[in-house]
Structure formats: structure tokens, C-alpha cells
Design brief:
38% of the residues lie in helices and 19% in strands. It is of the alpha/beta class and 274 residues long. The strands form two sheets. An eight-stranded parallel β-sheet has the order 3-2-1-11-7-6-5-4. Strands 8-10-9 form a three-stranded antiparallel β-sheet, with no helix packed on it. Helix 9 runs parallel beside helix 10. The protein is globular.
Length: 274
């Protein structure tokens, strides 16, 4: 597997629009820790960024020898708000951003059944440019569970549409985390992301799942196996031959610095993916 780090490592759980440190500082830290790529989000660069900003970000990454594993082109995609499906209604700016960053994977979102036709059209446009659309398993979307993901893949029926498996979101939208369920997704995976959480009804951090209603979560260290087991997940993926991106997607915990978070991510996932 190829180890990637989401720039979310420099974001707080409640703020998806601001990074705690600039990309000029973050990129060298990620490179030194052994990461091969960064998953780019709008806290660093977006479809609204001026061309000179996009050029600056690409030069920083090129200087460090880092690829871009995936592009999340705006804040609504990260926040899953009412504008999160804007990307599939006008996919061109998101494809342009991906190409400008030399990335082949573009994140999108769906919220209702009528979005399937929009994804098909967006995928056809992306295919003309050799790009792939990626949908994360995520609360409040058409893809909350593994079964949901398989159904949507079949409905979209485009070779350049794939799934990003995100264990915390999937677990939070179901009763339990089942690493074996991951095996069923492997033929359709274009990325895997991991953040570690416990379900906690008293937590101020939460979201509304289509299946379970309001769910409270709190972030815990990546090595904590109480509810999510990173090692078991990676083992299940490897057993089925998955060799794509493994992206650490954890935001900052209370009192944690960005260098500490990067070191923790490398210590847990470096040995698992080597």
C-alpha cells in the first residue's frame, strides 16, 4: 500500500476551512515522516483559489517529492452540507484543480437518488480527461455502508467511479465495525481513509446518519483498538490484494500539535503499510 496523509491533520474537528499550519510547513513534515502523498482539501487549496495559489501549492509538493492522492475541491464536500453535491452538477472546476495538482482522483458526494444520473454525467466528462471520481463512505449520503457502496457502484456503472472506504464513518452509521466487510469493497476501492473514533452520545462532535439519526463521536489515538482496529482493516485489505492509497484522515485532537499528529500517524501506519 502507498501511505498518504490528509491535510486534515492540520485542521481541528470543528473547522474544515482553516489549516493550523501552512502547506510550506506541513509538506516537509509529512515527507520526513515517510508519507508519499498528501490528500488535498479546501483548507489548503480549492476550486476558488486563484491560479497563483494553486501553482504555489504544486511547487511546494514537487519540491518535497510528494504526490496528491485525492482532491476534495471545496468546503461543502468536506462538511457534507447542502452544497456538497455542487461538484457533480458542475464537475469541470474540480477536474481542473486535480489536473493542476497532477492528481487523478477527484472526490464527489451524493445525497439523494437523483444524484446518480449526475454522477454518471460527471464521470463521463472526467473519463475524457483520464480522471476518476471518488465517493467516500460517509454519513448523510447514499453511501453510508458497504452494502450502500456496492449498490451505488452498480447503479453508476462507470469504470472511472470508485469508492473511498472510511472506517469511522462506516462504523458510526452501522452497529459495529466489521473488517471482513472491507473485503467485499476491494474491487471498487480507489482510496482508503482512516480516522479513529469512539461513539459517544455526550460528545459535542456529531452528525446525522440516515440510518441511526444523530450520532456523537469523539476522536481517540490512532492505535486505540476499542472500536476501530487499523491493523485488522489493513490486514483484510492486503489479503484481498489492495495496493492503493492508505490515507490517514485524522484531525487534531485537543492539545495535539500538527507535528505530534503526523508522528503518531507515521508510527501507526508506517509499519502496517510497509
Amino acid at each position: 500500500m502507498q501511505l498518504s496523509l490528509s491535510v486534515r491533520v492540520a485542521e481541528s474537528p470543528k473547522r474544515k476551512d482553516v489549516a493550523d499550519i501552512p502547506i510550506e510547513t506541513l509538506a516537509p513534515l509529512a515527507k520526513a515522516a515517510g508519507f508519499r502523498a498528501l490528500s488535498m482539501r479546501a483548507s489548503v487549496v480549492s476550486v476558488s483559489s486563484p491560479p497563483e495559489r494553486i501553482t504555489t501549492v504544486r511547487r511546494v509538493l514537487e519540491r518535497e517529492g510528494l504526490a496528491v492522492s485525492m482532491v476534495t475541491g471545496d468546503i461543502p464536500l468536506a462538511a457534507n452540507n447542502a452544497q456538497a453535491t455542487d461538484a457533480i452538477r458542475n464537475i469541470a472546476p474540480y477536474l481542473n484543480l486535480a489536473e493542476a495538482l497532477d492528481c487523478r482522483l477527484v472526490r464527489i458526494m451524493t445525497q439523494q437518488e437523483s444524484d446518480i444520473a449526475l454522477v454518471q454525467r460527471a464521470a463521463d466528462i472526467a473519463a475524457e480527461r483520464g480522471l476518476t471520481l471518488a465517493h467516500m463512505t460517509h454519513w448523510g449520503t447514499l453511501i453510508e455502508t458497504v452494502d450502500d457502496a456496492l449498490r451505488v457502484v452498480q447503479a453508476v456503472n462507470r469504470p472511472n467511479f470508485g469508492i473511498v472506504y472510511e472506517a469511522a464513518n462506516t462504523m458510526a452509521c452501522t452497529a459495529d465495525f466489521d473488517p471482513e466487510a472491507v473485503r467485499r469493497l476491494v474491487p471498487h476501492l480507489v482510496n482508503v481513509m482512516f480516522q479513529n473514533v469512539h461513539k459517544d452520545p455526550a460528545s459535542p462532535i456529531g452528525f446525522k446518519s440516515n440510518r441511526l439519526g444523530q450520532v456523537g463521536l469523539r476522536y481517540v489515538p490512532l492505535h486505540d483498538r476499542t472500536e476501530l482496529d487499523a491493523a485488522a482493516m489493513v490486514e483484510a485489505l492486503r489479503a484481498e490484494g489492495y495496493a492503493g492509497w492508505m490515507t490517514v484522515h485524522q484531525p487534531l485532537r485537543d492539545g495535539q500539535t500538527v507535528p505530534d499528529a503526523i508522528a503518531e500517524a507515521a508510527a501507526v501506519f508506517g509499519p502496517l503499510t510497509s
